[in-house]
């Protein structure tokens, strides 16, 4: 006999859990809580990178305690074998770990909780066979065979004002328009900080030609889009944030859109790989200054090296050994999204793929989200990304790429070698 679940009870439980999760998301914003004052960068660079920074964190411990109390009260109500309840329990545990993370700032335990939330360089995403570090090393070995010193797209010459104006115009032209405002500010460390309803751009930042479309695909058409879709579910609008466990899938989705939309620059891909290597170095004991010097050899400026280093040490002890591991998720997330789409497209399961963008969810939740949609508990996405709008192009891309994965490249290599296609000619004309 098939398992049956009371729809009314399930809807009620989801709504109650959603209220608790929304409270946790509002009161324990991880990335915002781990941000550094821009003055820290100025002081570090003024000292020529010789003095370990002294960031301060403004974490509301009382709100964290209240969030944990609500999570503990909710826990008994999530028992059961129904897939939706399993999904809610996973989300519940994720929020518990998020609260714990902010309670362990600058301690060695911080790294343990961070690894539980995001993984670390040694983690193997989706049982894919390669660790995050091995994946980064493999990609770098291919990316570093080509020099990009003379590529125009890499040169950062666009001002923050021009960049903001172009981004605002793109937002206004989108149909349906995603309600996101653009601001220029002096109060952020990163070049760009994007949330659900606004994108902040650092006033002194400069951008390359490809940066606008890359940011559009990564932030607007991915992160902002899934957040706004999540907000349109009655009684389940916690999907506007989804919890820390959704980070890998959300970043993987955003990076996939960069690549599929032909807006992933080589420099950008390098930086994603270097982030994993950087975390590995800090796990091995590198302190802030040691990692900064490592990054200085890989960045165009001292400030860029500082910001890259700062990402790894957010909330972590600056003496090394226990880094913030969130930045390992990009490549593993990309791997998961790509292979999910390969399989889903093969079966032409449009509902399953569309459910991927119904809110900020983890890849493991897609089947549950699709089931909830089929029973009228969740809504279809209000906003659909461009890569999914063109269903036929997606089918063509993955049909051909699936075929390419089975081709023996050595036969083509032998042919090209026999025709001297990749060989230079040592002949001159007279």
Topology:
Blueprint: H1 7-27, H2 30-33, H3 38-46, H4 61-74, H5 83-103, H6 109-118, H7 132-143, E1 158-159, H8 160-173, E2 181-185, E3 192-194, E4 198-202, E5 206-207, H9 211-230, H10 247-260, H11 266-283, H12 288-296, H13 302-313, H14 329-346, H15 350-355, H16 366-374, H17 386-389, H18 391-404, H19 409-418
Parallel strand pairs: 2-4
Antiparallel strand pairs: 1-5, 3-4
Helix pairs in contact: 1-4, 1-5, 4-5, 5-6, 7-11, 9-10, 10-14, 12-13, 14-18
Please provide a written account of the structure.
The chain has 430 residues and is mainly alpha-helical. It has a domain at 7-131 and 225-397. 56% of the residues lie in helices and 4% in strands. The protein contains 19 helices and five strands. The chain has helices at residues 7-27, 30-33, 38-46, 61-74, 83-103, 109-118, 132-143, 160-173, 211-230, 247-260, 266-283, 288-296, 302-313, 329-346, 350-355, 366-374, 386-389, 391-404, 409-418, and strands at 158-159, 181-185, 192-194, 198-202, 206-207. The strands form two sheets. Strands 2-4-3 form a three-stranded mixed sheet, covered by helices on one side. Strands 1-5 form a two-stranded antiparallel ribbon. Helix 5 runs antiparallel to helix 6 (109-118), helix 9 crosses helix 10 and helix 14 crosses helix 18.
């Amino acid at each position: 006999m098939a398992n049956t679940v009371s729809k009314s009870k399930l809807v009620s439980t989801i709504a109650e859990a959603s209220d608790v999760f929304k409270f946790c998301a509002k009161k324990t914003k991880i990335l915002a809580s781990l941000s550094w004052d821009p003055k820290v960068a100025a002081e570090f660079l003024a000292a020529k990178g010789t003095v370990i920074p002294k960031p301060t964190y403004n974490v509301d411990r009382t709100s964290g305690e209240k969030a944990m109390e609500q999570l503990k009260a909710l826990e008994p109500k999530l028992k059961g074998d129904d897939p939706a309840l399993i999904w809610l329990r996973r989300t519940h545990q994720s929020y518990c770990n998020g609260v714990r993370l902010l309670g362990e700032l600058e301690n060695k335990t911080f790294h343990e909780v961070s690894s539980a939330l995001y993984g670390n360089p040694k983690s193997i995403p989706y049982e894919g066979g390669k660790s995050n570090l091995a994946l980064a090393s493999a990609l770098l070995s291919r990316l570093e065979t080509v020099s990009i010193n003379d590529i125009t797209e890499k040169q950062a010459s666009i001002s923050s004002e021009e960049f903001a104006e172009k981004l605002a115009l793109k937002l206004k032209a989108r149909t349906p328009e995603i309600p996101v405002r653009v601001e220029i500010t002096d109060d952020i460390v990163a070049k760009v900080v994007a949330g659900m309803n606004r994108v902040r751009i650092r006033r002194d930042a400069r951008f390359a030609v490809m940066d606008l479309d890359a940011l559009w695909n990564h932030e607007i058409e991915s992160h902002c889009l899934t957040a706004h879709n999540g907000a349109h579910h009655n009684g389940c609008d916690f999907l506007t944030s989804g919890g820390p466990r959704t980070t890998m899938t959300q970043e993987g989705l955003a990076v996939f859109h960069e690549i599929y939309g032909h807006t992933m620059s080589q420099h950008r891909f390098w930086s994603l790989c270097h982030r994993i290597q950087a975390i590995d170095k800090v796990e091995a004991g590198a302190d802030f200054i040691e990692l900064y010097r490592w990054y200085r050899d890989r960045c165009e400026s001292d400030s860029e090296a500082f910001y890259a280093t700062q990402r790894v040490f957010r909330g972590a002890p600056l003496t090394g050994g226990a880094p913030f591991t969130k930045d390992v998720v990009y490549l593993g997330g990309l791997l998961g999204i790509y292979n999910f789409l390969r399989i889903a497209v093969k079966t032409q399961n449009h509902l399953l793929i569309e459910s991927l963008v119904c809110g900020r969810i983890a890849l493991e939740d897609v089947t549950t989200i699709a089931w909830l949609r089929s029973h009228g508990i969740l809504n279809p996405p209000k906003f659909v990304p461009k890569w999914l709008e063109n269903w036929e192009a997606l089918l063509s891309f993955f049909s051909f790429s699936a075929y390419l994965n089975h081709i023996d490249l050595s036969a083509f290599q032998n042919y090209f070698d026999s025709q001297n296609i990749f060989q230079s000619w040592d002949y001159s004309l007279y």
